[in-house]
Amino acid sequence: MNIQIKNLYKSFGANRVLDYINLEIRSGEMFFLLGPSGCGKTTLLRSIAGFVDPDAGEILFDGKSVAKVPAYDRNTALVFQNYAVWPHLNVFENVAYGLRVRKVANDELQRRVHTALKQVGMESYAERKPATLSGGQLQRTSLARAIVVEPDVLLFDEPLSNLDAKLRLEIRAEIKRLHGELKRTSIYVTHDQHEALTMADRVAVMHSGHVQQIGTPREIYEQPANSFVASFIGEINLFNANSPLAPLLKTNANSEKFGFRPEKVELSGHGIPAKVIDNAFLGASSELLLETANGEKIKCHCNSPVANGEQVHFTVRTEHILHFEQ
Ligand code: ATP
Predict the structure, then answer these.
(1) 14 C-beta closer than 6 A to ligand 1
(2) Distance (Å, whole) CA 25 – CA 202
(3) The pTM is what?
(4) CA-based R_g, the chain, Å
(5) How far is CA 217 from the centre of its chain?
(6) Cα separations (Å) of 17 from 13, 37, 120, 151, 221?
(7) What is the per-residue pLDDT across 225-245, written as a single tens digit (0 to 9) for each?
(8) 90 with 129: CB under 8 angstroms?
(9) 42 pocket-lining for ligand 1 (C-beta < 6 Å)
(10) Going from the N-terminus, what domains does the chain have, and what CATH number goes with each?
(11) CA of residue 38 to ligand 1 center, whole Å
(12) H or E element: which one contains 305?
């Protein structure tokens, strides 16, 4: 299922939550909506699901407008942050629920629920009630409930937010594996850049109701469209064009701002003098904060031991300096 969003506009009072959004989600891809809290990504997801009525613009599923198609007829399935399982039903019945609503015959229902539970590794929990399950098991149950109805589009709304770091990695891998197996068009909302970078085929970075950039994780990281994207995805040392660093780094583009990633800073015997003012040991490497004679601060990574207060020199190759108009 291919999804096109054309000039989509939604406001709540004076708050323009979706400010004429345009994007296309390709059939079978894992597409991420990434942005800070309040940027409109959940509203966009809920508009696609049919739970929010846009004020203007169009949403097309395989070229056809879904404006008049109610949520229950869009053949999408949602996986939420808070699982949204029925507490009084056991795992089997929670997963079977969507099939019972669709009046699927019992034989087929049994087969499909067992297959879905197997796909998420929950077969042996079929009889358990939600109150007896861990967060990871609850989220696996909601995954099974979403895939069992064989939706054209899978929608994920921050599905890992309630899980601890270890479970987050586990369910993240599970969603990625399931997507590889099922190849359903999937739209995934998150504010977590790591989730987006590790799982997405493509990402739309959103800010204040606008799409800032659409691209593969690599494109967005290596060629950010503006300074917002550059600082939201990964870390960047960002300066105004009139910074005293500009002539020292020989950046001569006429842009408003320039910047470079910490991993692109090379410490060497020559280059710009600076002092190490902070030093975070990360095991295999250290993260340093340098300060130049002009008081500019630069983050960089270093593989050999360097002490606080030590004088160093650094360079950044011109091809690694990014230029931004805003
Ligand atoms: P978060 O990750 O915090 O949910 P988000 O990017 O998903 O953020 P949305 O949930 O889409 O953002 O909300 C965007 C803006 O719209 C916010 O300012 C929110 O308060 C507002 N908003 C969302 N739904 C409604 C509503 N039903 N009524 C009024 N304002 C709303």
Answers:
(1) no
(2) 9
(3) 0.91
(4) 24
(5) 10
(6) 10, 12, 35, 27, 25
(7) 999 999 999 899 999 998 989
(8) yes
(9) yes
(10) 3-231 (3.40.50.300), 236-324 (2.40.50.140)
(11) 5
(12) none
